[in-house]
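Hi U.,

Before I forget, here's the chain from the pilot set. I'm dumping it here mostly so it's searchable later in email.
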Amino acid sequence: MLARLGNPQDKLPPVIHIAGTNGKGSTTAFLRAIAEAHGKTVHVDTSPHLIRVNERIRVAGHLISDDDLRRHIDTVLKANNGEPLSFFEGMTVASFLAFTETPADLTLVEVGLGGRFDSTNVFDAPAVSVITPIAFDHREFLGRHLSQIAWEKAGIIKPGCPVVSATQTRDVHKTLLAEASFCKAQIQFLADEISIEVSDDGRVSYQTGALSLNDAELGLTGPHQRQNAALAILALKTAGLFELEADKIKAGLKAVTWPARLQKLDEGPLTAKLPGKTVYLDGGHNPHAANAISEVFRDKPPVAIILSMLATKDARSFISNLSGIAEQIIAIPLPSSHRCQPPDYLASLAEANGVQGRTAESLDAAIEMIGASASDTALIAGSLYMAGDVLRANQQIIT
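Structure:
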């Protein structure tokens, strides 16, 4: 398809390619925010979308317009001539077509699934390949062992091109080292390159080489975001596309936004039904994500949780990792056509972990039930598919 359309992937501004299990979206958001704080224009290709499909394609800082998206999709379908083509493949090609029409300084491309055989893996020489923490997810596609999953993710490593990686488990670390060696690519691991210090008030200081950054505030919630921010800094430093300035990095780290990642919901129709409660939304859906959520709320009063998960996800481990912070878990079906874990099953897992488990027929019903909770904090979690419906119900539009 790309060849039929003149190989638009080869005509883009310098590309940073991002793979991993957790933190891809947040790391991409940090990359964009830091670059834009330096006055750079950035194309971004991410997935999935939460409310509007336009969210997947950001052209020079702005979501693609309906007219442009329709025009590029028409081009893709015409060139495809009825051959097999997935939705993700079509959107990937459309994004590259859109990016070639508007000048920019940088292109950020997030892997959809895995890496080695992902539709985005079409760049011969990315400015840098970025690998976020790798954990178990999508085992039905990527393998049953972390080394198999790491091999899939490592497919974005390209001959002679630099790679930066988050701190990984031993097996993953060895797999990434082996793939980088095979490709004659230099790989840097975060812990070896950047020192991170956290003050009592939660501000973060980073030191890498001659670059020193003190008392930074992060716009995204959670201790895990300190690592994602550091990985973004290391990636941009390694790419060497522009000179990094400490004050502008700090501005980007503070300004960053990324929906449904421990997002505190604004005042709106949904939160109005929970007066006096602070409501958070998180689309994380694997045990690693549950650990990150738990870390944020560990020293706070127990949280009332509304939970829905896809049938393919490891609900047992997810709920086990959340149980230490939960006052109760109200399980609901996904408000979409996607096959989900039965709410009765999720509630039973909560009970097995010593947490009150309840079920509700819908998000609205769960909101009503949670209103009577003694907790002053509510968390809606377990699926990005539900996250979009929550944002829509609260009239929060992504721009």
